[in-house]
Structures are given as structure tokens and as C-alpha cells.
Structure prediction request, 363 residues.
Amino acid sequence: MSLVTWQKIDVAAKDPYPVFLGASLEELGEYLHRHYRDIEHILVVSNPVIADIYWERLKQGLMNYRLNLLIVPAGENEKSLDRLSQLTTEALRCGADRKTLVIALGGGVIGDLTGFFASIFMRGVRFIQVPTTLLAQVDSSIGGKVAVNHPAGKNILGAFYPPLAVWTDFSTLETLEWDEVENGLAESIKHAIISDLALFEFFENEQQRIKQRDKTIWREMVTRSSAVKVKIVSEDEHEQGIRGLLNLGHSFGHALETQMNYSGITHGQGVSIGIVAAAHLAHAKGLMSRAEVERARRLLEVFGLPTTIKEQNPQTLLQHMQADKKNQGGRKILILPKGIGQAIVSRECTDQEILSAWQQVIA
Prediction:
């Protein structure tokens, strides 16, 4: 096992776990054999596209285990109670029990769905995140948030359920379509805006090499962005304080995704528009200069991310924000950037201020 090629960052949670960066899919089996001798059965959950590309590679290291592959159709709509029920039925048919290990092989949807399934199947079984998209590698696979959607909103039903490990193979990024890359870039730029000015400047300075998919630059991008997420969730695992900052752009973005029924807009596109809306709101409250708002907007647009949306009703979007999980006592809780490199939790945004921010991003 070529450990020298790996980088490991530990998440200092109640149940600590490692994030392996630069590991290979083929080596996961050897890691499991060394550290978890009681595992006999493994369920791998993936979607058809990812399984077609990576299942054989992952399977190479898992031949000493009883293996089952469960396929879930691609798409955000699969994060549902109906799909959870179907996964449960399939897992039981495969003879899964409390000692079964579940592996999420895929992007954010697969990670969220599989993690939540693992958290409730037989009152909780072990699972490992194997993220194959940029978004999953830098954000959704780290931190133990798992969930499915509800008609009232995104990720309404969920839990904090940390994995045994996050196993990141950078080579899986090589097959991504650019719209999937955009999803991850939106989250990475979000990390920079809330916590790391130097990372923001890295995106500005290296935009051409990022677009050219320079492997060295991409490795640095994933590592630095992941480190921001690890640091924050290590300090606040259950989102009682600083972890809330990671939701920059998400209150606005989730409202858009819900309104559009998760069709016609990706998560990253929603977050990008949401970041700009939050930046306009921050400017109105004196937290950002107009130049800083434009700087953030320009960086998102450089990578092809949208910063406006057409033909939406601000009042309807405001109503969707009522279901946001951060809200307390009927008050909308929003994350606002404070310049670039910092952010705050705001409990004092009026509906009129939020509507004005929406109007800034509706073309």
C-alpha cells in the first residue's frame, strides 16, 4: 500500500475519522482488512454512470468480502423516503445485517442518501464515503451530514452520522463533465469567502490552470478546500455555531432548487446564485463593499457559474426559505459574508431585505 502518496486529515469529531486525499480505489480493501477485521459483507451504493466507470476498480480490492452493488438512478429526486424503502428491501435481500459495511460510491446525492440509509438501517451500520465528484470531495462527504429531501424542502429529513472514513481518489475527477466541476467550484469558492482569503486569491490567480484541469493545481484546490471544511466541522460537529457559516448561499440556493423541483438547476448553480444574493444583502447591511460584491461575482462567472436567474417570483422564493433548517422561532437565519475571508450568522434580516436581495439576482 503506497501510503507515501496519500495525505490524511483527521476530523476531530466525537467519533473521529480520517479523510484520505490521493488514495486509490483499489487500495480501500487493504485498508479495511488492516483496520476492521470483523467486516464480512459490503454493500456498495452507486448510480449507473459512476458504477460503470469505477465499480470494477473498487471491486479489485474487495474480492475477499461478500459484495453486493445496489444501483440508484441518478438525480436529486432520488433522495427520498421511497428510495430509502427500496434500498432497505434490496439490502435485506442481500442478507445485510448489523455488521455490514455500506460504501457510498458517487457524488453528493449518493453520499447523502447512502449515509442516511446507513444511519437508520438496523439502527445504524458503518459506512464509508468514496466521493467521485469535486463537490463531494471538497464538501458533502466531510462532516457527517446525511439526509433525504421532503416536498417542503431540501434535506429536511436527516442526521449527523459520521463515516468510518472518507476515501478520496483524485483520478475520479478526470471523467467529470464541466457542469459537475462547477458544482464543486461553487462550494470551494464558498469556503474561501467564509474563511480563507488566500484560497480566494488562489482561485483568482490560478483560474486558467484550473480550467485546464492541471492535476497539480486540482490536487492543491481539493486539499486546501477540504482543509477548510475539516477545520470547521472539527470545531462544531453538530452545527451549533461556526459550522453554520458553511451554509453561505444555501438558504437562497435551496429555495431555488425546491421551487424548480431539482430540475433545470444544479446544486452548485443554486449555491452560486445564493452567494451573490447573500453578498448583495451583506452590502446592504454594510458588511461588504460594492467592490467586494463584484469581486465575488466575477470569480464565480469566470468559472461559468450563474449569478442571476430568470423568471422567478421573489415572494415565492421567500416562502420556500421559511422551511430552512437554520431558522429559529420564526426568524430567518442567514449566513452573510463579511468582506472576503470571513462571514457571520445574521438573525436580523427582514423579509423586505431578503426580497431586495432576490431582486438583485433575478434577471
